[in-house]
Every structure is written in structure tokens, then in C-alpha cells.
Amino acid sequence: MTSGRHSGQYLEKFNLLQWPQYTELVCRKMAEHGRPFAPATVAGPTTGGVLLAYEVARQLGVRGIFCESDAAGGRSFQRGFKLQPGERVMIVDDIVTTGGSLVDTIEAVRKAGGEPVCVSAIADRTGGKVQFEGLPFIPATEVVMESYAPEYCPLCKQGVPLKAT
Fold this sequence. Notes:
Blueprint: H1 13-17, H2 20-34, E1 41-45, H3 48-60, E2 63-69, E3 75-77, E4 88-96, H4 100-111, E5 115-124, E6 141-142, H5 154-157
Parallel strand pairs: 1-2, 1-4, 4-5, 5-6
Antiparallel strand pairs: 2-3
């Protein structure tokens, strides 16, 4: 997976994101979770978070932006995106396996002067185990799917060929 972990199961976000009417429904749930935190902006990481930030922001009536990988190995806001000091930002993403993209996005918001207020995603694969520095995390759905560090992957130990997606 993008996180570098291995799994016998995979959720393909683009099977949902290809259908605007269904993406709108999932984003409605994410937006309703975020509404009480009064975000002024919704931010997501590239790639899946771009569409989600846009749609959640549209439903909340606020701005949607995204951050990209940068030369320092993290993420930053580029393309002229700016945050006002203390600007309240909801962070969104697609499928959470380790939460690395969300952590990078939270750091990018803080580096840009914003205040992360809550986190949401299409699905949490961790079964509620992931935490984001005390920020409320409310996924649209939770799915329990095992994932492994490569050295502990039982499929690799059985010689099952790796399929990169």
C-alpha cells in the first residue's frame, strides 16, 4: 500500500470517487462530523484528499485546499495556498492505514499558521487505533483490515507475489 505496509485486502478509493453522487453522500457524512468544529477551510493531501477536501468544503460552504509532497520529505501548501494565523482547518483524507498522510497534512497546516480542529476520512482501516495528536478523528466508516510491516507479512512468508496498487 502507499504506506509501505502489506495486506491481503485493499480498498480502492477511486472506485468510490469515480461516482460523484456517492462521493457526495460520503462527504456529507464527513462534513456533518466536521461542522461542530466550525472550520474555515478543509485541507487534504494529494491525491485522494484533493477531491474530498473540495466536496467537504463545498458542503460546509468554506474553502477547500490541498497540500503536496515537498523536497523536505513532508507536505506543504503550494500553488499559492495560504492560511491566516489561527485559521481553523478540518483535515480530510481517503483510506487510513497508518495515518501518515494525515499527520503530514496536520503538520503542514501548523507550519502554514493554521489550527487543525478535526480529522475525517472515507474509511479507517485501523479499527480506531490511529490517533492524531488529540484531534477528534471521525471517519465516515470503519473497516477492520489487517496490515503488516513487510518483514512480518504472512503472505510474503508464504511466497504470495506482491501486487503493487
